[in-house]
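In keeping with the milestone schedule agreed at the kick-off meeting, the structural modelling team has produced records for the first pair of proteins. Each record is given below as a sequence line and a structure-token line. The laboratory manager (R.T.) confirmed that both were archived under the project's standard naming scheme.
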Amino acid sequence: MKRNYNAVIIGGGASGLACAIRAKLNDKSLKIAIIEKNDRVGKKLLATGNGRCNLTNKAVSPEKYIGSFKPKCDALLKKYDVEAVLGFFRSLGLLTRFDSEGRCYPRSNQASSVLDVLRFACERLGVEIFCSQTIKTCRRALSPAYPNCTDNNNVVDRRYQAVSHKVKKSGAEFCIKTETDEFYSQKLVIACGSKAAPKLGGTAGGLDYLKNFGHNIVPFKPTLCPVRVKSDLLKSVKGLRAMGRVSLFDRGERLIKAESGEIQFTENALSGICVFNLSLYNKDGYTISVDLFPENSDKELLSLLKSNRKLFSTLSSDNIFTGSLHKRLAQLVLKTSGFSGFSKLCGELSDSELQAICRCAKGLRFKSCECSDFSQAQCASGGVLGSELDENTMQSKKQKNLYVCGEVIDLCGECGGYNLHFAFASGMTVGDNL
């Protein structure tokens, strides 16, 4: 079936839904369609913030992001700031709250509340949503005005050289063909996200469409995910969690990024939100240093160990951190400091041995490998080059009436609501310019 629209949005996630609603709020006469490959819209949205949906953050600023769009996002984030995004959601009926870290959540503490107000707004405003649709081709609607259009194999599809009189009359510039329908539209929005979380529908499809429209892209890489490290000892602390501070150093030992929080130890990786933020900047061969006592100076920790040496003098040396570290983690620290066994008693540890143990506890060092795969990634870095988009409208500089929003843009933020904020803000930007 052939369908005609003023604008078609590919992707029913955060940015696509915000875009459609904003466009209809500005002009109710617009005929807008969303094409979604999943059986329902907003699947990834439901999983964000551990099911609570961290919408935005009081600290939103360009400094929280990486990617080629970063130099251009300042104006967008100033116009569509925290208050603008939350004002948009208030108009849809959503109440929100901030936690002590500046993260914003729905008052209900349920991501479903965020998705519900977006879905209901689409229904109320007459946005047409087509789910479970697999796109076969996405191109300019071929006509004499666009003789050089190519399909996904870069071969001109002559079948589309003759566009129906109805399409010509409507001014359609794009044709999106699925297994069951042909969608013609005057404007096209690519809002189909990244490869992160493939079980929730993550895909690189958006980049394929943009490449076929002449755009240059940065390949997707998994980010906001565990970082794999090289260690023969990590298996011994698998499943443990500890509060601490992680620091990322490049191959020249220059500090790149440091974060505090809960560190999770797996069989071959370090995890936790603080590690996720390091994953944005990690490269194979970098070093991650873990400080298990960030609240204590070296001198203070050494004093504690000397006190414990006396207090636990008759116990084996792996009890030196009794009361402050899990025993398996204490054993890891001792082994890293040079102990091959724990036959010594705490009372037999020398000052130099305590100093070595102290240094390890304040700086467990791991050589990093690549980040974990897309299945464990909350987001992905990479996407369409920022220089090829107009930051005021998010319109392509390569193709007139082609717009891009959300995670398919080469911009990725830290944990804490920054990526969802950009998804909503960029979607609102496009919606205001359709």
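The second protein of the pair:
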Amino acid sequence: MEQNDYRPRRAEKKKRHHPIRVVIIVLLVLAALAFGVPKLRLYLAWRDAQQVDAARSAQQAEDSSTSNTSSQPISAASGSGSTSESSASSAAETDASSPADASAPTGSSTGGIDLLMLVNSTHSLPEGYHVELKTLGNGQQIADLIYPDLQQMFDDARSQGVYPIVASGYRTAEKQQSLMDEKVKSFVDQGYSGSDAEKEALKWVNAVGYSEHQSGLTVDINADGVHSAGYQVYNWLADNAWQYGFILRYPEGKTDITGTDYEPWHYRYVGRDAAKEIHNQGVCLEEYLNAVD
């Protein structure tokens, strides 16, 4: 007969988590998140701003080697109302203390410069062309006569939450040739022959003497990369730039006429009256001048 084992078994202890301990752990996690997330956001914003500043510095160093300085650099705009936004917006974003009585010309000629002169792949700048330049806060230069309207346009854009910068303004002949050489090389590297590469390059960069950028009346406008994206700036400019005397120089669907592919960043100053007519008619500059003639 088997002997039954009547020894009592020890009851298994159940692990219990005290409710107060759980509450404390949850509170600590929430506190860490509340403190850490804002810090992370600030770090990311600081990092992005540093990258933008570095890119601008590189662009300024590149352009300053070939640009002629005709006026003192102007300070970054303060129209945004905060220090971080002001430092991120430095281009024609200039100081908000621009002369109140400095109004842009509305005629077709100012200071001996024909605002409606045609400069493209078949029409060069007039012989002996000269323009007074103004240097912006980021080192880019523009014709002094377009500054008031450009300043007003950037101020109004920023007041609506859009932050543009002048990525490229006036170019010397040397700078223009350098850009052409780089573009040709890029197409050669893609497998184009030398002659084909030059043809393709001319769709994006005009030859020396045939570029509007050498007139000082043209600006390539992009987003600051921190507060705005490119498409936001391009959309705003497409709707509003004409009110300040600027036209989209190379619209979509006009490549056969302008000889240049669509460039949503490339704007040419023609004065407010002409810009309004060109906008209302939905034409490019070549079409408008033919109609005027």
